[in-house]
Amino acid sequence: MSVLEGKKIVLIVTGGIAAYKTASLIRLLIKRGCKVQVIMTPEAINFITPLTLSTLSNNPVYTQFFDGKTGEWTSHVDLALQADYIVVAPATSNTLSKMASAEADNLALATYLSAKNIVFFAPAMDLDMYKNPYNKENIEKLIQKGDICIPPNKGELASGLEGEGRMAEPEEIVNFIENFIRKELLFYKKKILITAGPTYEPIDPVRFIGNHSSGKMGFEIAKVAEKLGAEVTLISGPCNQKLSNYSSILRIDVISSEEMYKAVDAHYQWADIVIMAAAVADYRPKTVSKIKIKKEEDSFSLPLIKNKDILLHLGNTKDNQFLVGFALETNDEENNALKKLQKKNLDMIVLNSLRDDGAGFSYDTNKITILDKQGNIEYFDLQTKEKVAVNILNSIHVRIKT
Ligand code: CTP
């Protein structure tokens, strides 16, 4: 999923030949899930029509403070404050100069000057204008103020000359903005290994020992972690959860606890953070029948042997990974969770109590308590599993920072 999904972008189009490229830029932003509001300077409408940009952005395009037909006034302050990001593309030398000297002689500039959010600008002009020391000084001033310059390319310019000043291509602009946002995210480039769901321990070709874990909690953590910039590997037991729109999450499906152990072990060294949300079966049948077991006797017993405790193994072989376990308890909850935290050498444990209404496997909600190895305890209210995932990741972030 793009970090731009759901973001509101105010695109300021100014009067340069590269304005024609904003048609593609708008399409790319919309494809990434952005809402785009275009504002054009009076000169920009000579290079591409407001109708074209309005059709592509699915929004009216604003060009002036007052609408001559309706007499309505467009509030530059509202436009600026509603946006998550402002993108000025193309940014001509004239507009850059006015931005740098706080001139507000059109709606686009007034909106820019009212902005409190991050502003990206993509210079576009002829090479000598670009090289001009006053223009360079303006760009430097804007960067000093905190605006982000998307550097122009070298290449053939509208004048026929070759040099620096050609606006970055629409794909480059979108990639630049996405990379910038990603770097600001809490878990940028952190490698997070997450397990989810139940494990199935085979009895014969048609039966298994399993549990009711839906996998939802682990999947929500994986999705939120990805949105926060992490590189996520999700090892999942059999469940019906989907990851559509999260193509960058590496999903590895396993069935038994033994398979989960092998997959986790193979990725352990790679990980900075491990979150074991899976409900791993503690025991498996001692032997697995190759053929279906027939019902013959009135009673039937199945010898079971203990599975490897994956988390205990991770705790015992820990390097620098931040290790998070889950504890699902029915009684003496905090004590039991604390014992698991210590025994498995964890940094943090997420406790659910089956005594809390709305918490546990089959719900879309969960109520958690977080305990850490320093002895801190945080209590949370009943929340959706997505919110719980956010809380868990925030708690991890606070602890890895300190
Ligand atoms: N876990 C694991 N491997 C197992 C069993 C559990 O990695 N074979 C992990 C779970 O993913 C969870 C944590 O250990 O993060 C605690 O699991 P839980 O089932 O609550 O506790 P157990 O250690 O199995 O102890 P008990 O079942 O006796 O409460």
Q: What gyration radius follows from the Cα positions, in whole Å?
A: 28 Å
> How many helices in DSSP terms?
13
Distance between the termini: 29 Å
Please tally the β strands and state the result: 21
Distinct compounds present: cytidine-5'-triphosphate
Q: So, CATH architecture of the largest domain?
A: 3-Layer(aba) Sandwich
**Biggest β-sheet description:** 8 strands, mixed
The CATH fourth-level homologous superfamily of the largest domain? CoaB-like
Q: Given the helix and strand composition, which structural class is it?
A: alpha/beta
Estimate the mean pLDDT confidence.
94
Strand residues, percent: 15-25%
List the defining traits of the structure above.
402 residues; alpha/beta; Rossmann fold; 8-stranded mixed beta sheet; 5-stranded parallel beta sheet; 13 helices; 33% helix; binds cytidine-5'-triphosphate
